[in-house]
């Protein structure tokens, strides 16, 4: 133990000097004031800086809020209505009104139908965008050929009569131009070009109107309005596959059927010893039920 507590003269002097240095530094820390008295704050500049920071925060909050774009109030959905601040009852009143094939033609009529408050009406009406036949009924159809809309495109009693035409009156969807498609309410340049581009993917065009479901962005309501005026009169000719004899490689040539689904279709076919109806495909594992009408265009039972 002695070896740990025995120090030479030089070591003792070094330890003593270290103790003095530590004590000195502690005294300086406790007794010397290092705060600067020369720092001055320009209060006006500080206030201006805080105002700028607050304005930047407000701008950031406004940017983070969901933006509302102009829309036709006739096509407000449950989600859209809720995002606008409408109650379920107000939305239901609008949907019930539209279900009767009635149209909202003014902000006043919108409030009468939905019974929304004045404050909410004032908030959302700046975004209402009615079609041309509401804002300019006299000139809405002056550029449209008579045989394109005939009596169905007239302004009657403040409502747009959109009853479907007969098969003979409709234009062939496989020959329709983008300009003709744009005459349908809800079809603009983007949708019309998208329809034409999708149609041209197939030599001969569409097989059936139901293929419009595959055009990206088209809602059932818009498809219904298209088929009120257009239909496939000269369908693309195809050779249907017998669902009970088709091979894996045959089935994958059909839209919406990949190798996994084709395998499941054949496996189900073997289990039930052949399909008796094409609707039995709905029972196949991972089958896209919402696309069955399109898939059935390519299949047969014999």
Automatic annotation (TrEMBL):
SUPFAM superfamilies reported in the protein's UniProt record: RuvA domain 2-like
Transmembrane intervals: 12-32
Transmembrane recorded as keyword: yes
Signal peptide: none
Top-level taxon in the UniProt lineage: Bacteria
Pfam families on file: HHH_3
Keywords for the protein's UniProt record, in alphabetical order: Membrane, Transmembrane, Transmembrane helix
Keyword Transmembrane carried by entry: yes
PANTHER family documented for this protein: ENDONUCLEASE/EXONUCLEASE/PHOSPHATASE FAMILY DOMAIN-CONTAINING PROTEIN 1, ENDONUCLEASE_EXONUCLEASE_PHOSPHATASE FAMILY DOMAIN-CONTAINING PROTEIN 1
Record's protein name: Helix-hairpin-helix domain-containing protein
